[in-house]
Each structure stands twice: as C-alpha cells, then as structure tokens.
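pasting Formylmethanofuran dehydrogenase subunit E for the record, 65 residues
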Amino acid sequence: MQDELARKRWLKIPTHVREKLENNVFCINCGETIIVDYQVVFEDQQIVLRGKCKQCNGNVARVID
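structre below
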C-alpha cells in the first residue's frame, strides 16, 4: 500500500524533474550515473528509488525529499 502511495507521489512530479533525478544518482563504483530498472518505495516518510546503475549494474538508490 505504501509503495503505491510512493509511486503516485513520484508520478505527480513533472516529467522533466523526474528525468533529472533519474539521471543524477551516485554509484559507489562509477560516480554520477543513471538509475535503471528501479522501483519506487516509501522509506522513513520519503520516496526512494531503488534500482541499478546503468554503467556497472550495481545497486543504487536515490532519496527524493
């Protein structure tokens, strides 16, 4: 239920802003990267994108505050 709420809030963010957030994620191996194959979840009252680094396929996350 909470993940659905997080997804709805994520989709309310304008597309151009979502794209900027997706394209500005930190990977421990690659530095700044793009998040792919991500899920939108709710953690500690914040939206979090959890997915993979486009370059190395490592796990990455992006907190949306």
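The mean pLDDT is 94.
Strands lie at 25-27, 31-33, 35-43, 46-53, 59-64.
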